[in-house]
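Fold Annotation — chain and its backbone
Encoding — discrete vocabulary of local shapes
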Amino acid sequence: MKVAIFCGSRSGNDPMFAKQARELGEFLGQHQVDVVFGGGHVGLMGVVADSVLASGGKVYGIIPEHLRDRELAHPGLTKLYVVKNMHERKAKMAELADAFVALPGGIGTLEEIFEVWTWAQLGFHQKPCAFYNVAGFFDHLLTMVKTMQGEGFLSQEYVDMLVVENTPDELLDGLKRYRPPQEKWR
């Protein structure tokens, strides 16, 4: 299994975020779950990549030329793909991954997980989308998702399709148990 990880290019203010990212990376590496990610060596991205690699796992990075040229590319990956832009990066990540997981991060993290969740809703893929909800990081966001559903902008089946877990075991189990709903416009 290859899991795309979307997460911060920063580590956040609380060292607990890096600790949890490291523990998840170690778990994935130990369970032969390969990681696909944005290719950077900075922030939680670098923490996850380093811990997967140190645990014997494989890590595939996809980085746009612009970011590689700023010396942000991780130097020790299993494979690094250099692409022209962010659109190609996301397409390559979607192509390589069997599942998508958001860890704590900023607007890029949200943009990436919401895009693949939208693609799943529309039937462009049948892969699970997950939030690794470390210390309730995504609780307010998930409340907003429930508000969208309650106000009639989102069907319950598309809320239910999200895997939301806060331990490595539960996350991997949730990804393996995932069954996609019927696509939106059938």
